[in-house]
């Protein structure tokens, strides 16, 4: 991955920046720097309208192939888009799961009928998705899912029963992609299916989980005889693991650069507060800020190296991708600790109910979860050891 951009790329950068400057105005001006981690509850309706505004300008799904409605942007241009989006303070994307995960997975593994049914709504920013992977007994251990799917020939439907947890923005979503066990006698990664489930139907119950921040962007989702059309399984019964792993490759893909620009915005806010309250004069604080800056640059360069080794349209990535989740989650947790230390004693106080958290207070509380969700740090280290370094597998205790 080259670390410089062509004249054409820089012209594209100007186009992105100009469009964002012209459109993050009026009703959307208040969305600047909102909707990130710990703040995803903010302005949900306005952010949904923002998705449609992006679609009108042709700025959703910029990396999708042109034949599927995207811009077909190069990796370099996708990097530029995400950098400029975050630099402008544009809001957290409520359409991220559809655009970054569901859509690319359907392009890679879906049928033409599934693509025609689901991709247009994602492109238009009118249909939102959530991810049905984690369960109470299957968080980092995805292969331990207990949710079941059976085909009812009389109703000509897949019938889904089970529970998912930590489902981001499920209460705002139109669809959920669900990993469920199609073979009740199967174990581990065998006998799984990957289903596309409509949320607004009898048998789907979304219950918010109130977090330490006082917000509820995560949810439990219960499936009680929820229905799924026979054409809404991606691949064949038993292919669920392959499709699920392909999707996780997309999760470690180019959108990671957008995540890092969000991190840069948060670090900039930490620096602003340190200058404002004088904490920047503390040598220890200055050293921690410098370390956070350097490690964020390292994260970016490794991501560019990771993306340059992307080996196919199925989301597969080279070994560099294995360290990404461990690195960013640990870094982000440390940033939250730095943020609250920069705020000082005032950062540990709230004036009165309803106790509205500041941006940095919310950051500190939310990032405590970063090293747990999406695969805990312990699981990530096992993955690096076993898959990346080919060390002996951890013994399975019974």
What can you tell me about this protein's structure?
With 398 residues, this protein is of the alpha+beta class. It has 3 domains: 7-94, Acyl-CoA dehydrogenase/oxidase, N-terminal domain (Butyryl-Coa Dehydrogenase, subunit A, domain 1), CATH 1.10.540.10; 129-236, Butyryl-CoA Dehydrogenase, subunit A, domain 2 (Beta Barrel), CATH 2.40.110; 252-388, Butyryl-CoA Dehydrogenase, subunit A, domain 3. Helix content is 43%, strand content 12%. The protein has 11 helices and 8 strands. The strands form 2 sheets. Strands 1-4-5-8 form a 4-stranded mixed sheet. A 4-stranded antiparallel sheet has the order 2-3-7-6, with no helix packed on it. Helix 4 packs antiparallel against helix 5 (112-124), helix 7 packs parallel to helix 9 and helix 8 (283-308) packs antiparallel against helix 9 (324-343). It is globular, with a radius of gyration of 21 Å. Residues 130-225 form the Acyl-CoA oxidase/dehydrogenase middle domain.
Alpha-carbon Rg, integer: 21 Å
- Count of all domains: 3
Strand order of the largest sheet: 1-4-5-8
CATH class of the largest domain: Mainly Alpha
Number of helices: 11
State the end-to-end CA separation: 45 Å
Going by CATH, the homologous superfamily of the largest domain would be Butyryl-CoA Dehydrogenase, subunit A, domain 3
CATH architecture of the largest domain: Up-down Bundle
Approximate shape: globular
> Helical percent range?
40-55%
Largest sheet: 4 strands, mixed
Helix-strand sequence: HHHHHEEEEEEEEHHHHHH
Number of distinct beta strands: 8
Specify the structural class: alpha+beta
CATH fold node name of the largest domain: Butyryl-CoA Dehydrogenase, subunit A, domain 3
Summed over residues and divided by their number, the pLDDT gives a mean of 89
Domain Acyl-CoA dehydrogenase/oxidase C-terminal: 238-388
Domain Acyl-CoA oxidase/dehydrogenase middle: 130-225
Keywords: FAD, Flavoprotein, Oxidoreductase
GO cellular component, one term: plasma membrane
């Amino acid at each position: 991955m080259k670390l410089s951009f062509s004249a054409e790329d820089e012209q594209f950068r100007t186009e992105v920046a100009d469009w964002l400057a012209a459109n993050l105005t009026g009703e959307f001006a208040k969305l600047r720097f909102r909707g990130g981690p710990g703040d995803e509850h903010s302005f949900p309706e306005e952010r949904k309208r923002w998705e449609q505004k992006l679609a009108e300008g042709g700025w959703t799904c910029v990396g999708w192939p042109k034949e599927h409605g995207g811009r077909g942007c190069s990796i370099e241009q996708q990097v530029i888009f995400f950098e400029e989006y975050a630099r402008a303070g544009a809001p957290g994307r409520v359409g991220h799961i559809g655009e970054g995960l569901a859509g690319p997975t359907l392009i890679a593994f879906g049928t033409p009928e599934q693509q025609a049914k689901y991709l247009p709504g994602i492109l238009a920013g009118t249909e939102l998705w959530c991810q049905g992977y984690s369960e109470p007994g299957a968080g980092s251990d995805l292969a331990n899912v207990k949710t079941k799917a059976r085909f009812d020939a009389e109703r000509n439907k897949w019938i889904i029963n089970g529970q998912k947890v930590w489902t981001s923005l499920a209460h705002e979503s139109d669809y959920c992609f669900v990993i469920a066990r199609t073979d009740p006698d199967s174990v581990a990664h065998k006998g799984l299916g990957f289903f596309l489930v409509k949320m607004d139907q009898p048998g789907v119950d979304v219950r918010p989980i109130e977090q330490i921040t006082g917000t509820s962007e995560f949810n439990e989702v219960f499936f009680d005889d929820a229905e799924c059309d026979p054409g809404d399984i991606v691949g064949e019964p038993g292919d669920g693991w392959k499709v699920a792993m392909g999707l996780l490759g997309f999760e470690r893909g180019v959108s990671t650069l957008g995540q890092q620009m969000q991190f840069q915005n948060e670090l900039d806010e930490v620096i602003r507060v340190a200058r404002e309250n004088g904490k920047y004069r503390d040598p220890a604080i200055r050293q921690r800020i410098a370390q956070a800056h350097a490690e964020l640059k390292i994260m970016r360069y490794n991501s560019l190296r990771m993306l340059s080794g992307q080996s196919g349209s199925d989301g597969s990535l080279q070994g560099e991708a294995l360290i990404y989740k461990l690195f960013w989650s640990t870094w982000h947790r440390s940033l939250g600790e730095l943020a609250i230390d920069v705020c000082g004693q005032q950062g540990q106080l709230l004036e009165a109910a309803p106790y509205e958290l500041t941006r940095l207070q919310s950051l500190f509380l939310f990032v405590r979860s970063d090293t747990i969700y999406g695969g805990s740090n312990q699981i990530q280290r096992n993955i690096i050891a076993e898959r990346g370094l080919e060390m002996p597998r951890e013994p399975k205790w019974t």
